[in-house]
């Protein structure tokens, strides 16, 4: 083993020794003198670094197993192939060192939300020595503390740069008394001091003692102190004079300026204008602090408190008690009793905008109402409560008629029965319900108590039930509709505040109405006792739904079931009387108003209008060739179901005499329709109006021609029949016929039939081959298609990067696992060492105790023998 081979230079041990000796690490060292011992430390650090590099190169040259060389078959002389020589051990140690420097700190800080970063100069730079770091930090600190003045500042009298002498600036020579002035400033006189210093015999006196020098210093300090005190006294005297004249100055400042006399106009001076502007700014009054704005909680609490105070005052007046000052309370001078009892003088749009009183009006008025709906409702929602409180707080000194006393505080009803009991208990008139509801909402505002939102949500259900109760009475009047309109305002505000709870109330009512419809259809669609068509209460509820909830949404929790219910009414309910016909027309008007934004086609409404018009119009024309009426044949052609047309129970509905139709029909007319000529004329007039409304609404539809062609044909036949029977109804039918005819002609001209897309004939696709037959090399991945080759290249790069990322992540995970194992082993070793130390201490104590016990026993034994 010790023998060396030829050409190898000996064994590795011999090579190591020779290498160390050549590098100067081992071998004889020169003796150091005193000067060499005092060599700078930086030179020593440089030598140590060079020695470390030589040792690393020596280790690399000796250990050939740490290199991995890839030999190429055909290697050109003078070329270097990148990656031909690899050092896996060095690469692994470098990667471990890099992970230990970056990944390990991140792993340690994974559960920490804050970190400390040392931003001192050179803290993370190992190439800078400690002395250089301290010197640089000291320099930076001195520069930060130095005054930061600009050398180009024109307002700075002292120049930053100047001449110096022994570190002192020469710029202060002008202030020294021993320096003569410049020749230009010399007046030509010589003072006594210059004569004593410069002239012949002007020598200094005898040397001064320390006592004399100190005496002069004390005198100079006293003189400076006296001058400062004198200046301070002068400032104080001037301040006192200004304080005495302050009154005169203020009188001059705040006196009213005299009217200036007219002077000839002259050009104003810029300087005078600026001075006047500065004086105006000086004379401006300072802003005074005002009270802060109150929050919503404070406003609600204040409103509730005012209502409670008004209620207590009302009760004292009712009992005839006196107020706190001993004076009787006058009931005619207070405005608390009639808070909201007068019918509010609202415009017609506020009362009728909900359509409950004008449900079957003309379409123009309906459009105007719907356009103003959102704005008016939003304003009323924001101002309703404030108006009620203001009416309760303001006094009106005009005499009024005696009215029943209305309390100011009420409990919040949780059900409709409780609400009716409250109205009966206080004998509240229908015109006062709006005021009562406003006061209940004010006293139980959500900001006043935690349970108030729940109370208001229950109260919302009670209000909805009361609307149905008012509309469902047998003797429903216009006053009831006004009450419903007032309640709808409050329902809208509460529904906007609690939409989920309100949706539950409305969906429950819609489900109940659908259940009643199915029960009526099961009983018999033509049975007079079956409640298939909605009555006044249900119609008012559906109208309220179209106002409170968005009807243009594609899907809505309340609006979608409502639309389905109205379509089910129009599709499955059979017409048995004019009352059913009026209900159907009202549902069609709701469909027209609800689909104004979305323009969704509701075929049930169009079919219902076709059947109602066919039953009202006098269609006395000949039979068709197959023995059927032309209207029946037209309905079958377009797929319109007509189960009640020409039925025995609908024959009396045809108009037989003339009557002038009314322009407006109230919702109350739905329940009061009877078999009379006037009601037939009114219903036909409203049917024609609704047909025109839907014709304008569905104008953009591609199926417009198919939708309104049967209606136009029906109205043309009916118009010819009305010429002899009811001439007063001809104008309304003629107007509808003309409008629909014009719209249909426009639809015919603008509609284009479906056809295949016109395009140029495509040529036969020619595909390039995937390889070149002339220079095909199966060992190389060549593709003549550049785009396909680029895509393949990108896929290969992506695959390579993904594999590299996975490999690095696995190495990171392995490194962290090894680090955790090392830490766990170190913790276990430390714990074992600690426990061994504790157990050893206990065992040592136990051993000493046993030795002591044996010694005691031996002493006792010896004492017993004696």
Enumerate the spans where pLDDT stays under 50 for 5 or more consecutive residues: 1-7, 177-187, 326-403
For the secondary structure, the number of strands is: 4
Mean pLDDT, to the nearest integer, reads 76
How would you sum up the global shape?
A: extended
How would you portray this structure in words?
With 866 residues, the protein is an all-alpha fold. It has a domain at 297-497. 58% of the residues lie in helices and 1% in strands. The protein has 28 helices and four strands. The strands form two sheets. Strands 1-2 form a two-stranded antiparallel ribbon. α13 packs across α15 (433-443) and α22 (603-616) runs antiparallel to α25 (677-697). The model is unreliable at 1-7, 177-187 and 326-403 (pLDDT under 50).
Short description:
This protein has 866 residues and is an all-alpha fold. It has a domain at 297-497. It has 28 helices and 4 strands.
List keywords for this structure.
866 residues, mainly alpha, two-stranded antiparallel sheet, disordered N terminus, rRNA processing, Nucleolar complex protein 14, nucleus, ribosome biogenesis
Helix and strand arrangement:
Layout lengths: L11 H12 L10 H4 L3 H22 L5 E2 L15 E2 L1 H21 L21 H16 L18 E2 L2 E2 L22 H7 L11 H35 L1 H9 L15 H14 L12 H24 L28 H5 L10 H9 L1 H21 L22 H10 L7 H11 L8 H20 L6 H20 L1 H25 L12 H13 L10 H14 L5 H17 L8 H14 L13 H9 L30 H4 L4 H21 L6 H22 L4 H21 L35 H80 L1
Antiparallel strand pairs: 1-2, 3-4
